[in-house]
């Protein structure tokens, strides 16, 4: 099947605010307020997160997250994890230690006082301590979510190893990424050699591809 061609919709809601670092979005009938930080790559909302959030909202029958166990790797600001939480999932959002404070803040403020499953925020360094921190005997996820985790960095092999580690039989990986460099396509090729991979949607204006594996 050919991928759906989509445009990232302006779910961003402009607000007059004294804080330049807060963005307001609306997904699944909820207003989501995201605090960004210019100090870390992971603390900014990248286009892949918008694309996957939009797709999950629009394709709830195809990907029903209600009461499913969802792990997001490289969760960044937490937008995708928050959307998954609103959609009824048991969410674990993970990222590097230096990003966790902002991630926890965003997830907490957008999911508290609701009837959602309480999300969890945990440290995860790709390829490190997986057996100790997430033993296979205890942790099994229905969905693995990742957005804009592939860019010009040196941790691509550990990232792939992390995806392989968490993808057990029955796990669906949904990965949205802005494709910028030849290394991005090389990663896609490696992923396709390991997983049954399908491009679900493309967002040409943003150079974003959304893949299922």
Automatic annotation (TrEMBL):
Matches recorded under InterPro entries: Methyltransf_16, SAM-dependent_MTases_sf
Keyword Plastid: no
GO terms under biological process: methylation
Domain of life: Eukaryota
Alphabetical UniProt keywords: Methyltransferase, S-adenosyl-L-methionine, Transferase
Pfam family, one: Methyltransf_16
A GO MF label: methyltransferase activity
Keyword S-adenosyl-L-methionine on entry: yes
Name of protein: Protein-lysine methyltransferase METTL21C
Organismal lineage: Eukaryota, Metazoa, Chordata, Craniata, Vertebrata
């Amino acid at each position: 099947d050919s991928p759906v061609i989509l445009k990232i919709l302006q779910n961003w809601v402009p607000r007059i605010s004294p804080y330049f670092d807060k963005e307001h979005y609306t997904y699944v009938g909820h207003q989501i307020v995201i605090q960004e930080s210019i100090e870390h790559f992971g603390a900014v909302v990248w286009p892949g997160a918008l694309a996957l959030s939009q797709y999950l909202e629009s394709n709830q029958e195809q990907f029903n997250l209600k009461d499913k166990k969802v792990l997001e790797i490289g969760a960044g600001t937490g937008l995708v994890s928050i959307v998954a939480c609103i959609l009824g999932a048991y969410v674990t959002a993970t990222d590097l230690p230096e990003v966790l404070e902002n991630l926890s803040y965003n997830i907490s403020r957008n999911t508290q006082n609701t009837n959602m499953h309480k999300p969890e925020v945990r440290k995860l360094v790709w390829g490190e301590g997986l057996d100790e921190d997430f033993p296979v005997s205890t942790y099994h996820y229905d969905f693995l979510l990742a957005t804009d985790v592939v860019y010009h960095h040196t941790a691509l092999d550990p990232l792939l190893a992390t995806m392989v580690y968490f993808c057990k039989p029955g796990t669906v990986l949904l990965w949205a990424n802005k494709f910028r460099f030849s290394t991005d396509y090389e990663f896609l090729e490696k992923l396709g050699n390991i997983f049954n991979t399908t491009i679900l949607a493309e967002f040409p204006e943003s150079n974003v591809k959304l893949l299922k594996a």
